[in-house]
Design a protein that fits this description.
This protein is α/β, with parallel strands linked by helices. The chain folds into 2 domains: 96 residues, GMP Synthetase, Chain A, domain 3 (2-Layer Sandwich), CATH 3.30.300; 249 residues, P-loop containing nucleotide triphosphate hydrolases (Rossmann fold), CATH 3.40.50. Helix content is 30%, strand content 21%. The chain is built from 11 helices and 15 strands. The strands form 3 sheets. Strands 5, 6, 9, 10, 11, 12, 13, 14 and 15 form a 9-stranded mixed beta sheet that branches. A 3-stranded mixed beta sheet has the order 1-2-3, covered by helices on one side. A hairpin with a 6-residue loop joins strand 13 and strand 14. The longest helix has 16 residues. The two termini are 31 Å apart. The C terminus is likely disordered.
Length: 393
């Protein structure tokens, strides 16, 4: 039987060249491991789309000889530095290797809109928006995650700003490369007890992202549903500025339990923040409240408070907007340097009791109260690939 299998697999055609695998000497290993077939080939020069075609041809060639559930296809590559040509290996049960043996792969395809669904393994999903850029939303999100973690919750963060991902820098993981497990789930990167995922892991920092909206929505959908968030109490989504495609794609596909709007006190920031708030309301998303970030600057020499961006703009606006003020976060030098150096402010216990620390813990407490406290993560569902050998969705 094995000779017949080898003969059939040797005739598999490489769609990139039109030649069969025997002509290109692609196969590296074809063997039976009990009832399972293990087949490994070199995929240099083969794109992810072409790889999926090959996998379909393998399945067709072995139809009636080996069942799909007993086929284990592995690939190797000497040109796998690009995440879009990542290895797609799946370890066999006999191999004593960790499940984190595969570089994660991003599908740069178009997102689809379907029925809203919950993120597997997550208790509550919170979207954090701003309406405009430059209000410190990513720094706020990272430190709110740390604050919720200090209350005993398991917290994850999605960096949904595809054009300007900053969480790898804030969490000190700029050189990290995510892996994927045997069920094709991306394993989130972890720092300071926070699990997080960012498009910044999949591109060079200096490279611009020149994509249209639908493609961005596909990445966000993958971050929500193809990342292993199992055991997460709160999943925070750091949205990009504005009210565009990414926000709509996320809201249309995922069940969001609450939203937070971040604004600085000045009128021009508040004007755009109101637009973000109205977007959430029109999409029927629960609004937890607004946060006034950079509410004042506290001099680290004399302790004097300066209202650089105006005073109390958000606190004065929330009554008319019909939402709660979750808190006011002042500026401290250490808040900025912590983000630049990859050590978030709220990860440094030496700052406990200072105004910024108190501000973040106050916001975390109000988020906790909004959901009544004591939330439990939802059980995750088995991966779609547990019985398959690498076929795409």
């Amino acid at each position: 039987m094995l000779d017949d299998i080898k003969k059939r697999l040797g005739q598999i055609t490489n769609p990139a060249t039109g030649k069969n695998f025997n002509e290109e000497n692609r196969w590296q290993d074809i063997r039976m491991d009990g009832a399972k077939l293990v087949a490994q080939y070199n995929r240099d020069g083969i794109s992810p789309a072409e790889k999926r075609v090959i996998e379909g041809e393998i399945q067709k060639a072995l139809d009636g000889i080996v069942g799909v559930e007993n086929i284990m296809v592995k690939t190797t590559s000497t040109q796998s530095q690009d995440v879009f040509k990542a290895l797609d290996q799946k370890p066999t049960p006999a191999q004593k290797v960790p499940v984190e043996t595969q570089p994660a792969q991003i599908k740069a395809g178009h997102g689809t809109v379907g029925n809203k669904k919950s993120v597997p393994g997550v208790g509550k999903v919170i979207a954090i928006g701003s309406g405009k850029g430059g209000v410190g939303k990513s720094t706020f999100t990272a430190n709110l995650a740390m604050s919720l973690s200090k209350k005993g919750y398991k917290v994850g963060v999605i960096d949904a700003d595809i054009y300007g991902p900053s969480l790898p820098m804030i969490f000190g993981k700029r050189d990290e490369k995510p892996r994927s497990n045997s069920e094709k789930k991306i394993i989130p990167v972890e720092a300071f007890g926070i699990k997080f995922m960012s498009f910044g892991f999949f591109i060079n920092e200096q490279d611009p992202v020149i994509w249209r909206g639908p493609m961005l929505g596909g990445v966000i959908s993958q971050f929500l549903f193809d990342v292993d968030w199992n055991g997460t109490d709160y999943l925070l989504i750091d949205l990009p500025p504005g009210t565009g495609d990414i926000q709509l794609s996320m809201v249309q596909n995922a069940h969001v339990d609450g939203t937070i709007i971040v604004s600085t006190p000045q009128d021009i920031a508040l004007l755009d923040a109101k637009k973000g708030l109205e977007m959430f309301k029109k999409l029927n998303l629960p609004v937890i409240g607004m946060v006034e970030n950079m509410s004042s600057f506290i001099c680290n020499h004399c302790g004097t408070e300066h209202h650089i961006f105006g005073e109390g703009g958000v606190s004065h606006a929330v009554p008319a907007l019909g939402v709660d003020l979750l808190g006011q976060i002042p500026l401290e030098i250490e808040l900025r340097t912590g983000s630049d150096n990859g050590v978030p402010y709220m990860s440094q216990d030496a700052f406990e009791g200072r105004p910024v620390w108190k501000g973040f813990m106050d916001v975390a407490g109000k988020v906790e109260n909004f959901f009544g406290g004591g939330i439990a993560p939802q059980p995750s569902k088995p991966g779609l690939f547990s019985k398959m050998f690498g076929l795409g969705k």
